[in-house]
Amino acid sequence: MPHTLASALDDNLELLPEARVRLLLVQPGSEWTMLGQTSSKGKAGTVRLSLPIVAALTPKDIEVAFVDCRMQELDYEKHVDLVGITVLTCEAPFAYEIATRFRERKVPVVLGGYHPTFRPQEAGRYADAVVIGEAELVWAELIDDFRHGTLKKFYSADRLCDMDRDVPMPKRDILNAELYHTFNTIQATRGCSLACNFCSVGAFFNHKFRTRSPDLVVAEIRELLSRGKLRRRRNRILAPRERVVFVDDNLIFDTKYALNLFEELVPLKIRWSCQATVKLAEDEHLLALAAQSGCEWVSVGFESINPENLKWLSKNWLPIGHGAGSTQKAGFEDIIEAYRNIVSNFHRHGINVLGNFMLGFDSDTPEMVERTIKATTRTNLDAALFHVVTPFPGTQLGEILDRQRRIMSRDWSLYDSGQVVFAPAQLSPNELQELYWKGYEEFYKVHRILLRGLRRPYSATSTVAIGMSTRRKMKRLNGKNSLRKESQKGFHPHSKKGAN
Ligand code: B12
Ligand code: SF4
Predict the structure, then answer these.
(1) Which residues fall within 8 angstroms of residue 307, CB to CB, at 6 or more apart?
(2) Which ligand is closest to the CA of 140, given by its number?
(3) More confident of the two residues 479 and 426
(4) Is the CB–ligand 2 distance for residue 191 below 6 Å?
(5) Is residue 325 pLDDT above 50, yes or no?
(6) pLDDT of residue 349
(7) Does residue 166 fall inside a structural domain?
(8) Higher per-residue confidence, 17 vs 8
(9) Which ligand has an atom closest to residue 195 CA?
(10) Which of 190, 194, 275, 317 is the pocket-test mutation for ligand 2 (most atoms within 8 Å of CB)?
(11) For the domain that residue 200 is a member of, what is the CATH number?
(12) Burial track 341-366 (b if 16+ CB lie within 10 A, e otherwise)
């Protein structure tokens, strides 16, 4: 017997399926980036939580389907009433193509995410509605307007949402778990109050940092663990602990919060990874607790080894406390030494480190970038990602390079941190492009991958697996000659598996 109006409505709608509104949520993808590619098994790396959150905010009487275009075929003929697309900058051209095809059939389309937030007018040309910023405080209103045929062009909340009150548990059952290597992604905090000028996160969240109560985070992980039970039983020997990835921009920004969270994680006996600054390596207590609660990988933005770049980025806190003094005085070798110390602090606690490096800052000459690439192999890192400096819309760096008229291309599909879209100061675009690939080639030479495994045998499986898979992706992207030509533009779907 139905007890509430909502469940009565649900029951009736089950009897009358035709009356249900059908919402299709689409993640477009962009296959040219190192990180955007599917693996040789046809799986994507990480679940992005954007659309599972939107699905969870959607009223229950609406039927929700989801397609991740990286692995799944999008059926443009599917009977749907409303389409929602999440858009990173590098996904924008493909997202606009999808939107256009649905709108040709008179199906209204809503665009949301980073790119529409920073380029709302542009996105508005391809959509019936654009959500600027977070969905939490506007999605209900948008759905209501849709039902009444009064969709507005732009929806934007007048404040950031409360992470405990307004952020729902993502509706992960819209996803096909088999299509992802890492299904268990979770978000404990949003934003970061540091102001790295190349990063989109500060501008998106108004440089504010918010946290979610550790109780809620733990409850969500427990829910993930109960779903993963079967998978875990099968993998008991190889993976006795379930893995969870925090997608937070800087999980340890608020040390007190991080300490509370890590304490709560201890009893869960999980293994987890996150993005954090080197502050984590410098706080022995925090680091020990992170390790004790299951931290196995940390992604750290070292950004550069060139002291001039670090000064320009105001990252003069990087090597402090490691004998090198501040970057104001430190030379190239001091910085390598400082990075080695940071890495070895993590290693002492059994935590692997993925270092991120950006290439193409104004102080980078070809020699300096070559030197940087060589130096990354001496830092004892377990993995590294190289990024070409990219002037993402909405960032300070974007504004600076725009003012200086150095942005060479606004083909957003190239904005994936792996393509040169601006005029570097001391290198030619081609030189920088070649050096970007050289970074991957050098760091992921087979003997180096194996050495990394031997150096730290207890984590050899994951280090070697990540190394080999990055190497394969690099080769697949056609290494050195990958500066894309106009004719290569566009999206070429990968192998298809049935959509949910
Ligand atoms: C997990 C992650 C990844 C994963 C998975 C990506 C994927 N393709 O699925 C990996 C590691 C593979 C990855 C790769 C890349 N990423 Co990434 N990634 C993230 C990260 C850390 C978390 C994403 C997430 O789950 N967020 C949680 C959800 C809930 O937040 P959200 O996406 O903002 O969604 C909210 C709103 O935006 C809005 N919304 C979003 N979509 C929609 C859609 C609709 C219809 C509506 C109504 C609302 C809405 O509502 C949501 C709820 O409030 C973000 C940083 C961040 N804080 O988001 C960077 C981020 C999205 N990545 C970024 C970038 C640049 C990349 C790369 C290009 C390269 C790189 N250097 O990392 C590649 C591109 C890969 C590709 N081709 O797909 C940038 C994007 C900048 C931009 N302008 O596009 C971000 C913001 C990081 C940053 N510091 O700048 N990434
Ligand atoms: S520390 Fe990381 S998340 Fe914070 S502003 Fe810098 S790059 Fe962005």
Answers:
(1) 327, 330, 331, 332, 335
(2) 1
(3) 426
(4) no
(5) no
(6) 96
(7) no
(8) 17
(9) 2
(10) 194
(11) 3.80.30.20
(12) bbbebbbebebbbbbbbbbbbeebee
